[in-house]
Design a protein that fits this description.
201 residues; elongated; alpha+beta; 7-stranded mixed β-sheet; 7 helices
Length: 201
Amino acid sequence: MSVLVGKAAPDFTAAAVLANGDIVEDFNLKAHLKGSYGLVFFYPLDFTFVCPSEILAYSNRVPQFEKLNVKVVAVSVDSQFTHSAWRNTSPKDGGLGPVKFPMVADMTKQIARDYDVLIEQDGVALRGTFLIDRDGIVRHQLVNDLPLGRNADEALRMVDALQFHEENGEVCPAGWNKGDEGMKADASGVAKYMGAHSEAL
């Protein structure tokens, strides 16, 4: 498994279903993000089980991501037409409804390979999530096995942590949440923080 943190997020151009339901053949990640933060997440297949719960969890939080200047992008090895059919199926019938972000069709599986989340023998992607900063650099990655659903609120927490660090220059200790005290990245900062918070960790 490659570690992409600290490296440029692999760019890609592929067919996709946009948030408004339109199908395009040339969705490009870099052009789409263009100065925004990005949250790119992979899932195995449309019309499956854990996947819709994750996708709807991310979609329901799009307004929160947008407030943080984050654009969410989903990717799987299904076609753009299967994505569209799934979006056009009600959640009560096993579908998604109109999710609020693009769904990319990785038909060649090259995008999943570039992000090193493809299970070659199964031909599907692991549940990989990649937080990309405004310079196109991956700052956080998380990869779950297929049975293990992700936490969309944790993705928001990581965005908060990254932006706190960018704005204040301080680092985010274990369990940090927005509004919590940060830590200065030096010996005195560690001593001060640990003296006040070690028992609560």
